[in-house]
Amino acid sequence: MKRFIALMGVAAMLLHITPANACTNVLVTKNASVDGSTMISYAADSHDLYGELYFWPAATYEPGTMLKVNEWDTGKYLGEIPQASQTYTVIGNMNEHQLTIAETTFGGRSELQDKNGLIDYGSLIYITLQRAKTAREAIQVMTDLVAEHGYYSSGESFSIADKDEVWVMEMIGKGENNKGAVWVAVRIPDGYVSAHANQARITTFPLKDKENCLYSEDVISFAREKGYFDGKNKDFSFADAYAPLDFGAVRFCDARVWSAFNIMNPADMGKYEEYALGNSTERMPLYIKPDRKISHRDVMNIMRDHYEGTALDMTKDAGAGPYAKPYRFRPLTWEVDGEKYFNERAIATQQTGFSFVAQMRNWLPDHIGGILWFGVDDAASTVYMPMYAGMTAVPNCLAKGTGDLLNFTWDASFWVFTFVSNQAYGRYSHMIEDIKKVQTELEDNLTSFTAAIDQSAKALYDQNPELARQFLTDFSINQAELVTERWRKLGEFLLVKYNDGNLHEEENGVFKRNEHGNPAHAKFPGYSQDYYKTIVKDAGDHLKLRDLPAEK
Fold first, then answer.
1. What is the pTM of this model?
2. Measured CA distances, 297 to 39, 101, 333, 531 (Å)
3. Cα–chain center distance at 277
């Protein structure tokens, strides 16, 4: 084992920490959820991504219409492909039929990227959402698109779910002189949960079970041709062939999967802690059975995880500073005196553009059954707002064009939430409690509201579907604007309460004053005893109070 760890060089490690979007997905099947919904979560983690809610209205097109394709990450123009005659409405990563698609980039073998391809992974998602109704149909559309037009990106894991089925599909290109991609898709068994986080997760798979496993005809033969595999077909592992495991893949990527699984079934996942630490090569299964039914609120909390309470807890070492901050600003790896070191990479991270928990419910009409619980900026300090699949417009505070990554505006939810989170990074252990209080209050209310909205919308839908869609649109827009304004007030409150490192006492959000009407005297909370001990250890007697020397 020591030899295995020693062989994992930093150069290999870097292959798994440089994708533009280092993201996390959690997948929940119907019989694993509290209410029978299917769910997918996604965090779009990128230092260069702005948090906004994408929107494409349904449309019809004349024959011969062409669709321009621009790379999602950079905006680079890649080319044109024929447009579909009919497209569906898309709200973020969910369409009006409750189909949802998310992703995480695993990179894999760099020689398999095709820079001549026309379809990057982001365009593949959003074009497919406009063209497919079900998960199986989405897999067909996605694989047909890259076969016909070429796949531009590196290795990718996709979460694909409709109101009945949940799938993981993994795909990688075939190099610049070989158009198309090799891929495999596995349906997650009902009653189970899965996750992926920037490392290929599908190893061996059933070769004769078309109901639960689909794959490209050449997924094994191509690996043989390239020298990635030389065993029996039944022993073929997609992940081992196309994205060989290394230390970075484990500690920065699969460790997040372990943490999500550990929250949903700690008894079974304890044995994989050594794997998460990079001390073992015993892989986790692609999916597990949770020890309880999982709710959409449970998934939201998983997306807020920083390994708390585990051996990877980010609040415990010196990097957490005086306020137990579970964040480490980039770069992810660094060097001291010629030795290489790294920071943990948790599910929740500061560089998230947007995240969501998609909830698909088959007992309601599609326009009502699909809810994209959508949040911007850091998942740990966001509020997930309900965006219904039947919406015909999106809130201005979340819309494209309301600010961008280089233009601040109070009108944009992203900048309002960033205003709060960036304050919290400086006084985390104090501010996060104020944030959680408001976060929980708002999400409790929104969960209660949607239960009532579902019933009202269904009654209205039975009489007038278009009027029901307008009702859902108005509700989602109003709630997003109200949440954003409430969060702005929270940011102002935090600025006053913790101004200049002090603590101004308050009760139920009202700051205290003295008997004369002036602000009550500020408190000085200082640091924790553990941090003071760290200071003493570093400074020695330099900061120790002592008597002046006696006069001579």
1. 0.94
2. 11, 20, 33, 34
3. 21
- Which residues make beta-bridge pairs with 385? 374
Which of 189, 192, 183 shows the shortest CA–CA distance to 239? 183
Cα separation of 174 and 113, whole Å?
7
In a domain, 114, yes or no: yes
Helix (H, G, I), strand (E, B) or coil at 189: coil
* Tokens found for residue 122: 């982001």
DSSP-based helix, strand, coil % in the chain, nearest 5: 40, 20, 40
C-beta separation of 390 from 472 below 8 A = yes
Domain that holds residue 10: 2-342
Is 395 inside a domain boundary? no
**Residue 171, token pair as written in the block:** 């795909």
Computed on alpha carbons and rounded to an integer, the radius of gyration of the chain in Å comes to: 25
62 closest CA partner among 95, 28, 81, 85 = 85
The total of other beta-carbon atoms located within 10 Å of residue 57's CB is 14
Spatial separation of the C-alpha atoms in residues 300 and 26, rounded to whole Å: 10
Report pLDDT for 160: 98
d(CA 90, CA 57): 6
H or E element in which residue 174 lies: none
Q: Please check whether residue 255 lies inside any domain of the structure.
A: yes
> Encoding tokens for residue 329?
């600003």
Task: Indicate the number of domains in the chain.
Answer: 1
pLDDT 10s digits, 470-504: 999 999 999 999 999 999 999 999 999 999 999 99
